[in-house]
Structures are given as C-alpha cells and as structure tokens.
Amino acid sequence: MRKLPTGSDVFEALKPVMDPEHPVSITDPSMAIVREEYIRVTGNLIRVLFKPTVVHCPMGALIGILIRHRLEQVFPEADVSVSLVPGSHTMETDVNAMIGDDERYSNIVAQLQERGMI
To answer: Does residue 1 lie within any of the structural domains?
Structure first.
C-alpha cells in the first residue's frame, strides 16, 4: 500500500501550478492563493481550500480546476476536494459547484488539454 501524502507533500505538489493571470505559483507567499494551512489530508481525502487574490477574480474557477487536476495527477489514489476559502469570492457557490461537478470538471479539463494549457 502506498503511503498517503502529508499536507506538506500536497503543498509541494502544487508549486508548479501558476496563477492564470500572473506567471507566479499559486503557493508563492506574495500571492497566498494556497497556503499550507489550507490543506488537510484525512484518510484517503485531500482537501484544499484556496483564496483568489481578489473577491471578484474572473479566474477563480480555473484556479480550482488547475488545483484539482494537478492533485489528481500526482496523487491518483486519493480523493480530491477543492473549494474556495469561505467568503473569499463573490461567486463562491457557483465556483465551488463548477470545481466539484465531475462532468463539468472533465469537460473543462478536456478543453484545456485540447488547447495545450495543461
């Protein structure tokens, strides 16, 4: 059986994920989109919260999709849950629904792959 990742492992795995609007990692302290304290690993579940740089960030859903995709690639044996830090986005419910809906998520990932974006 493979050892489950720690919060630090998950944080390290997210370092290559860039903010879509800036050439900076989402884990960079200057962006603070994902902080290590936003990550929880419980059993087989990796839960990551993220906080866009502004409450009306037009890339909020895309950031969440990129986080989920990266973690599913790096930790295929784990269940992954990604959502906004509560109160951090004006469209929080819609963004979380888009990231968490498997069909919508798969369609967006396929489009990003077709365009060579992931």
So the answer is: no
Alpha helices (runs of H) in 1-118, residue ranges in sequence order: 7-14, 60-74, 92-100, 102-114
| Residue pLDDT, tens place only, 74-93 | 999 999 999 999 999 999 99
Each residue's pLDDT tens digit, 26-47: 999 999 999 999 999 999 999 9
Residue 70 · residue 82 · CB < 8 Å: no
Asked, for residue 82, whether it belongs to a domain, the answer is yes
Read off the CATH number of the domain in which 104 is found.
3.30.300.130
Number of domains in the chain: 1
**Beta carbons of 23 and 57 less than 8 angstroms apart:** no
CA angle at 13 for the pair 8 and 16, rounded to the nearest 5°: 130
Could you count the other beta carbons within 10 Å of the beta carbon of residue 73? 10
Residue range of the domain that includes 36: 7-114
pTM score above 0.90: yes
